[in-house]
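User: For a benchmark we're assembling, each entry needs the component sequences followed by a predicted structure for the full assembly. Here are entry 17's components. Please fill in the structure.
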Amino acid sequence: MARHSVCKVADVAVGALTEVKVGRSPIVLSRLPSGEIRAVGGRCPHQGAALRFGCVSGTTGSDTPNELTYGCEGEILRCPWHGFEFSLRDGLPTTPDSESLTLRLRMYEVEVDGDEVVVVT
Amino acid sequence: MKVLDADVHESFASIKDLAPYLPEPYRGWIAGGAWRGFSQPFAYTSPGLGNRADVRSNDGSASVSDYGLMRDQLLDAYDLSHAVLTGYFYPTGLKLQYGFATALAAAYNDYVAEHWLAKDPRFIGSVQVNARDPEAAAREIDRMAAHPQVRQVLLPVVDDIAYGHPVYRPIFEAADRNRLMVAFHHTTFAQGPYGMGLHYMERHALLPLAMMPQVISLIANGVFDAYPNLRFMILEGGFSWLPHVMWRLDREYRQGRVEVPWIKKLPSQHCRERLRLSTQPTEDISGDQWMKLIDLMGTDDVLVFSTDYPHFDFDDPNAAIPRVLPESTREKILWKNAAEFYGVSDDPRSERSLEAAE
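Assistant: Structure for entry 17:
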């Protein structure tokens, strides 16, 4: 277990992505609307796109065709290439897995030490 | 090994045979020759025209109106446990005169009930509808669903209908409430993306390209999700394209789910669970290639055998499904998958089995 001070708390905002490097590994950080800071691997688990170019958004729901609801603002990370959606709450995709393709964001433990954001690897 | 044939084309000898089953004024129209029925917009090129050359129809059309001939050449010759009658007279082909088309569908259903279904308990019936009037189609489904041999609604694939469109929901509602399955079959009007091509062989090769959009439309527009008890049968539309469509839809869903969040499962999962495809016309591939395809589909539950009797591209159950396939897989294709789909069991040579499945 290694602890890495990666940026200031003020550098991580709701609805935004902040990329830091731990060694040569990119990690992106975002703050959930609830206040928690999330740190996830900086490459999309699909084809490796740099997630710092992605977007933090909400997502849609529906039980009836052509009637959309929208929610979870600030909790969804979308890949900049294909738009695959992942929840920043748990790193899971919004779509079901298949046997041939399991997609998960790599989630890192985050600690706040004073005004420093610390990522545990 | 039991064989269930999922696609058999019964017909009338003349459209005037429908006159007794029509109300006025349509009875008079048909009896008087005001409409002569659909005419295919191409010439057949096979030795027997649209039929096998050993199945001649009096009018040269791709049809068989003689139950005895079908019994001898198909039901008895191959000892079929069941044959699913799918027709080839699809009033949805009429793009106008909806009341007339709806009446024709009802008349045809009554004609088939009397002249075909009643003659042999091995027959499974399809409800024909005029899909262009979905509410009327739903009423016809409700009416015909009472027939103990009727097991499915047949939706014809024409050149301008993708059945996932919300306007067709009453048809699926009716199939669902009557516990019927839904089958899709091409027509002489079906087209590929650029029409029918310039030759019959092109038109025939393009038929799968009229079927794939139906699967995409049904899933994208939430029909699979809205009716979890409905299952869907693609007849005579090819099957080796299924892995591509499943993979493509899964990718599109992952990247575009925000637009269609009413889809709750991966499209490939929907397909494996509730889509079935009939095998005729089989592509002439080796047993190894069959097994590779089944492996790519991820299940051997999907394929169901059909002959397409009496048409020229008939598949013989003893030849079309290679004997080198594992026994259990071959049994699933020839009988079990379709038997589960249609809810038939055990001793199907009696009416009892069809009724017992109710």
